[in-house]
Amino acid sequence: MEALPELYAIFQGEVATVTEYGAFIKIPGCRKQGLVHKTHMSSCRVDKPSEIVDVGDKVWVKLIGKEMKDDKLKLSLSMKVVNQGTGKDLDPNNISLDQDERKKRMFRDYTSQKITLEAVLNTVCKKCGCKGHFAKECFVQPGGTKYSLIPEEEEEEVAAAGYERDKKASVADDSSKKRKK
What we know:
Layout: E1 10-18, E2 22-26, E3 33-37, E4 58-69, E5 72-78, H1 95-104, H2 118-121, H3 152-180
Parallel strand pairs: 3-5
Antiparallel strand pairs: 1-2, 1-4, 2-3, 4-5
């Protein structure tokens, strides 16, 4: 087997072919070629790889992946993490490569799974003895008044009685103001 560069090694290769999805680079010292996908050609968006490189160009690349598929070794290369003028590694800790991998991952859909709050619903309050809440959330004090909801019919009657009371009080205030003058 031919001597392949180590993973994350940087070397200068020659462009063998340019396709619509990237460019194949000849690896020096062996007959293998690696693919620089158009997403790894530049940090900017590349629509046509032929606008970036031509056949025969010398480019600096970094070996970012080795994969065995159908008994063939496929090599992934990147140009965007290497300075094309000097060959210096722009991503020595491979952080941007990890971020690119995370972007590609598919996320699981958890919307179909329902969340149940059984722990809270099955509790009994130590203050009032009711189910569904904790003592620190309870508004009923021991020996205190328990509040309940008023039905809608009674609410209207209570609101009307309160309005009449307020009206009588304001009339009484007006008459007392007149007497003071």
